[in-house]
What we know:
With 109 residues, chain A is mainly beta. Helix content of chain A is 0%, strand content 60%. In chain A, a hairpin with a 4-residue loop joins strand 7 (60-65) and strand 8. Chain B starts with a strand and ends with a strand. In chain B, the strands form 2 sheets. In chain B, strands 2, 4, 5, 6, 9, 10 and 11 form a 7-stranded mixed beta sheet that branches. In chain B, strands 1-3-8-7 form a 4-stranded antiparallel beta sheet, with no helix packed on it.
Amino acid sequence: GQSLEQPSEVTAVEGAIVQINCTYQTSGFYGLSWYQQHDGGAPTFLSYNGLDGLEETGRFSSFLSRSDSYGYLLLQELQMKDSASYFCAVHAAGNKLTFGGGTRVLVKP
Amino acid sequence: DAGVTQSPTHLIKTRGQQVTLRCSPKSGHDTVSWYQQALGQGPQFIFQYYEEEERQRGNFPDRFSGHQYPNYSSELNVNALLLGDSALYLCASSPQSRGGLFFGPGTRLTVL
Lengths: 109, 112
């Protein structure tokens, strides 16, 4: 089976940088993806890492180390609208995803 | 280009009833997955449809069933509803069973 660990909550101020770590244990691994979810909304796809290394998409970057079973999401130049929950998810065969419990990010002025 | 759409947005049912939720995938996507998300938790995989067949299933009882049509749209059916079935039901699509998932807005199901 799969299990993922990520911090439950992170607080930071506008303009700061936040790193959300995700460690996983899995019997089959095809990739790691990240999702943003605002209260009352649906998850929105942010980034996918199928190979080791860094993927950059605007202010958001995601990193994966398969040998360490570890990845992170980096949020730069934080804005108030970035206050949301962020989920990492492990991809198994056939693109079946197992999600972590989510990290609630609170951005303060 | 329409994204993933779901209907209805909200639904209230009583215990023992049956419910059908509907989903149309993003244009160009042929794989549809359904997830259940309880309040404060991450989404839990229910099952996945590709080429009109259930390809994978999570740890959900047989009360949860689905269907995929030739136009790739999909339905989720839940029979004999329990109070614990109250949750946000999310439909997600992806191209050819790979890559990140694109989620619909969800259906909020409340079972009384």
